[in-house]
Amino acid sequence: MIKKGIGRQIVLHYFIVVFVTLFMVEVIFAFALRTYYYQTIENHMSNHATRTTDYFQRFVKLYAERDPDYFTEILRTFELDNTELMVLNRKGEVKASSTQFQADKPIQTSDVPQAVAGGVGKWVGRQATGEWVMAVSTPLQVRGENRYIVRYVTSLEDVNAKLMNMTLLSVGVGSAVLALVTLFSIGLANSIVKPINNIRAVSAQMAKGKFDARIKGNYKYELGELAATLNYMAEEIVRSNQIKDDFISSISHELRTPLTGIKGWSETLTSGGFDPEETKIGMQIISKETERLIGLVEEMLDFSKLQQNEMKLVIGKVNLKELLQETMLNVWAKAEQKQIQLKLDDRAERPVIVVGDGNRLKQVFLNLVDNAVKFSNENSWIHLVITLKDSSTALVQVIDSGIGISEEHLGKVSDRFFQVNHNRGGTGLGLAISKQIVELHKGEMQIHSELGAGTTVSVTLPLLEMVGEAGSGAETAERAETSGLLTGKEQMGQDGMNEDA
Question: What is the pTM of this model?
Answer without folding.
Answer: 0.47
